[in-house]
Specification:
Rossmann fold; eight-stranded mixed sheet; two-stranded antiparallel sheet; 10 helices; 35% helix; 16% strand
């Protein structure tokens, strides 16, 4: 296990907002890419990065929605990106590489959660394909620009939901086992962290550091669109007249606003407290503590998400499934 995987402590907490993290941060001249950065915590991440002076490129599938949601944010450029489509990923990365400019921040933010079983054109399960494999391919293709920055950070937005499942290397795409939407989500979120662990190990000699991030429980975002009424009740949530209502006696974790949810992403992207550190899982604007607690709503990170052997194994599997090799970029 990475010896850095323990709280600093940072002096911040679960109530810290992204604006508070970014206070006095100057990103003038820096370029960032944020996948899915036009809704929820992704949009808030884009907003604070732009406010700090960065130029931000937003990749997403729904261009009309993206352009509408980002219309009031200057220096936020929208480009088509479908993480389930390898050709779309290649076109997005290719257009950026053609500009021959460094990439200082890559925030792999886009994702799906607990959707019914669907598969991409390759037959891969959609949560694993979208949340992990698509971002793995994108990062590999953008690798030259990350290295060219002279000091880049890659942020993989994971979730406390990684506790639902480790990566099942013998059947990651549910070809032989019954599909469970929460296990599929948990596996993909574990993969996000493991990818950061191995990417950081390989990238630190090129001054590219990587982090896995749990933003917090934020239910009023597009990520919750596949949740059923029973799913919501499980978390003490009901919808009345189109408004989300929370029952504090039944909700088993601290709920965050979008502004608070984007804070850990922002902190991991810019905090000088993380200089010389990487390959760790962060939550509540700090490095999380390892835990053996099985409760999926408790804090901390499970060992299966930060196991270096599992991280290397996932890397090899991901290269096989995507046909992408970092060494070739």
């Amino acid at each position: 296990m990475n010896p850095a995987q323990h709280p600093i402590p940072s002096g911040l907490n679960e109530k810290t907002t992204a604006d508070e993290v970014m206070a006095n941060v100057d990103l003038t001249g820096r370029t960032a890419i944020v996948t899915g950065g036009y809704a929820g915590i992704g949009r808030e991440t884009v907003r604070v990065l732009v406010n700090a002076g960065a130029t931000v490129i937003v990749g997403g599938r729904d261009l009309n929605k993206a352009k509408g949601n980002l219309a009031d944010i200057p220096r936020a450029q929208v480009r088509p990106l479908d993480l389930l489509d390898p050709k779309s990923i290649g076109a997005f990365a290719g257009s950026f590489l053609a500009e021959s400019r460094p990439l200082h921040l890559l925030i792999n933010n886009a994702g799906v959660m607990a959707n019914p079983l669907t598969r991409d054109a390759r037959g891969y399960e959609s949560q694993f394909a979208t949340n992990h494999l698509g971002h793995f391919q994108l990062t590999a293709r953008l690798w030259p620009s990350l290295v060219a920055s002279g000091g880049a950070r890659v942020i993989n937005v994971s979730s406390r939901g990684h506790r639902f499942s480790p990566v099942h290397f013998d059947d990651p795409n549910f070809d032989r086992r019954d599909y469970d939407k929460w296990q599929a989500y948990g596996q993909s979120k574990t993969a996000n962290v493991l990818f950061a662990v191995e990417l950081d190990r390989r990238g630190q000699k090129r001054n590219v550091r990587a982090f896995g991030v749990h933003p917090g429980a934020i239910f009023d975002t597009d990520l919750a669109r596949h949740l059923t009424e029973d799913d919501l009740k499980r978390f003490g949530i009901t919808i009345e007249n189109g408004q989300i209502k929370f029952d504090p006696t039944k909700t088993p974790f601290t709920l965050k606003s979008v502004e608070q949810g984007a804070a850990t992403t922002a902190w991991s992207a810019v905090s000088p407290q993380l200089n010389g550190v990487g390959g760790v899982y962060c939550e509540d604007c700090d490095i999380a503590a390892p835990t053996i607690e099985e409760n999926p709503t408790a804090g901390g990170v499970r060992s299966w998400a930060i196991d270096p052997q599992a991280a290397e194994r996932l890397w090899v599997l991901s290269e096989q499934l995507t046909g992408v090799n970092f060494a070739a970029n």
